[in-house]
Amino acid sequence: MDKLIHAHGLIKRFGDFTAVDGIDVEVRRGEAFGFLGPNGAGKSSTMRMIGCVSPPTGGVLKILGLDPRRDGPKIRARLGVCPQLDNLDIELTVRENLTTYARFFGIPRKVARRRADELLEFVQLAERADSKVEPLSGGMKRRLTIARALVNEPEMVLLDEPTTGLDPQARHLVWERLFRLKQQGVTLVLTTHYMDEAEQLCDRLVVMDGGRIAAEGSPRELIERYSTREVVELRFAAESQEPYAEKLAGLGERLEVLPDRVLLYVDDGDEATAEVQRRSLMPASVLVRRSSLEDVFLHLTGRTLVD
Amino acid sequence: MVSLVLPRLASWKGTVFEGSGRRAASVTERNISCLRSMYWVVMISGFVEPVLYLFSIGIGVGALIGDLRLPDGRLVGYAEFVAPAMLASAAMTGALSETTFNFFGKMKFMRLYEGMLATPIRPIEIALGELAWAMVRGVLYSAAFLVIMVALDLTTAMRALAMLPATVLVGFAFGALGMATSTVIRSWQDFDLIASAQFALFLFSGTFVPPGHYPAPVRWLIEVTPLYRSVDLTRALSLGPVGPRQLVDVLYLLALLAVGLTLAGRRMGKMLCK
Questions:
Q1: Do B19 and A106 touch (CB under 8 A)?
Q2: Is the dihedral of CA B252, B255, B259, B260 positive or negative?
Q3: Calpha distance A142→A263 (Å, rounded)
């Protein structure tokens, strides 16, 4: 029973709209698992079903070996949830947000107070304990929400876009805390449309698009399977990049034309760059980089992750 | 009375849950934690309003009206007649302000309940917890008002003691009604409608004028409104005599409570657990 999530043919419909279209997912204990996909891919709907606040329309779903339809409260008692939009209690202080939330789980007041202090320490908010929530920065609020999700010592933490809307510094702080949790053996399930986030945190992930799963594996596996070792990004100073694509034909394994640049998928970026110059094409800029999950997504769906 | 209705509602949708009461209580507890803020200002206003009406109309206008003849022929002072009605409408106001305006704000704007629903708490338990809180508020108002009534010699201490549980029932019924209404409300503008309806009830539920003075069809309409049934109950307890009509009042209010609470729990589930 070390499958914390078992979904088979899972479907979620809202009226005529199918948000999740028959997905199979398995998450094992101790794993950091990610749903990567653009907005509207069905990630949040999936997360809400896993969090037992949204009943599935069809398919099989088992969380912690239990049926969410029947055992919602029992399952939720063992989960931690960090929603996409902060829903902290603005009428309470930072500390009270944790102690009050702990009471919802039936945790005794004394234990709640002790745990709140430990968690505030953990998310580096101890000195703001008596502040109201409102004046906190976005990053602080998100860290408080994460602390709140840990107040019941959950077996699995669900994080819906944990760093969306945060500045880079705040994101790194959140990542670092999440990484610490992962090291402590807490199972993490997160959604993201940032490929760097997925690469940093996830042991394994699924790429979601249009309610379906397009691919599954570890970040490295996915990159190896769906992309080349290196990518050359060429920007041409012209209205359209299209005409250059023809002249680049035969260079590398694959080529993607985006509105503002051409991506060349190759094994050796420098060699490809030299070839571009031999063909006397004059790109305004050239960037050689390693393949990322962004390229995997582009290859699988023909679209970029963040538009 | 509450303990009769609540367990069955809490086991709504087939699954009996032993922890329901505890979880609903933790929702109430959350509201108590907020009291340290400026919230008490809001609470004071709920107490002051009926007292102002009692003094201005019950005693002020009452001095012009003189005594009033009850259906059974007894003469009572106008303030004595109005006071139990103010008590019932204070219980209504207290319950409604908590379960309409505040409840709607918590649900739609603070998104407080989304956070709660990620814990073992279920929608019906939130409804119960919030209702219980509205009652705590309501009972405080009622008790304070009853003290004033006894002090002004508008009723006896024994009768005041009997009225307190009646106001709890009134509060519960209106609280459940308010909560159910909040779940169908679209925007803040709709609160103007609620306020108008509430004011109409306040004016015409036999509060200031015995309903016998209205034409028959109007009287029948008045007699099926919830505040009329509440006033009928508190007035009978305050002035006597208590008869089978009061049993009808109690059953009416219990039914309102059960229907309102069930509806609220169900609608909340639909809205928040999509």
A1: yes
A2: positive
A3: 35
**Per residue in A146-193, pLDDT tens?**
999 999 999 999 999 999 888 899 899 999 999 999 999 899 999 998
Q: Which of A100, A107, A157, A158 to substitute to test the interface with B, most B CBs within 10 Å?
A: A100
State which residue of chain A sits closest to B108, comparing Cα positions: A87
The complex scores an ipTM of 0.84
C-alpha distance from B49 to closest chain A C-alpha (Å): 25
If you write DSSP's letter for every residue of A228-271 in order, what string do you get?
-SEEEEEE-SSS-SHHHHHHTTTSSSEEEE-SS-EEEEES-HHH
- The domain spans of chain A are 3-218, 228-290
pLDDT of B35 higher than 50:
yes
Among the listed residues B119, B53, B41, the one whose alpha carbon sits nearest the alpha carbon of residue B86: B53
Contacts of A236 (CB under 8 A, 6+ apart): A244, A261, A262, A281, A282, A283, A284
Please name which of A155, A145, A2, A4 lies closest in space to residue A77, comparing C-alpha atoms: A155
Distance from CA of B198 to the nearest CA of A (A): 28
Q: How does B173-193 read in b/e, with b if 16+ C-beta sit within 10 Å?
A: bbbbbbbbbbbebeeeeebee
How many other CB atoms are there within 10 angstroms of residue B165's CB atom?
13
Minimal C-alpha gap between B4 and chain A (Å): 24
Neighbouring-strand partners of residue A12: A20
Question: DSSP of A79-98, one letter per residue?
Answer: EEEE-SS----TTSBHHHHH
pLDDT: which is higher, B40 or B126: B126
**Is A76 at the interface with chain B, CB within 8 A?**
yes
Does the A228-290 domain belong in CATH 3.30.70.980? Answer: yes
- Please indicate whether, in this complex, the C-beta atoms of B117 and A100 are within 8 angstroms of each other: no
Strands A262-266 and A254-257: antiparallel
Tell me: the pLDDT tens digits for B185-228? Answer: 888 888 888 889 999 999 999 889 888 888 889 889 999 999 99
Using a CB-CB cut-off of 8 Å, the residues of chain B touching A100 are 29-30, 33
Which CATH code of 3.10.560.10, 3.40.50.300, 2.115.10.20, 3.90.550.10 fits the domain covering A3-218? Answer: 3.40.50.300
3-state secondary structure of B245: helix
Q: List the beta bridge partners of residue A157.
A: A80, A188
Amino acid identity at A12: K
| A 172-201 residues inside an 8 A Cβ radius of B | none
pLDDT digits (tens, 9 = 90+) for A218-249: 999 999 999 999 999 999 887 788 888 888 88
Alpha helices in chain A (DSSP H): 43-50, 68-76, 94-104, 109-122, 138-149, 168-183, 195-201, 219-226, 242-247, 269-278, 293-301
Closest by CA position to B231, among listed B40, B46, B91, B33: B91
> Where are chain B's structural domains?
17-272
Name chain B contacts of A72, Cβ cutoff 8 Å.
120, 122
What does the mean pLDDT of chain B come to?
85
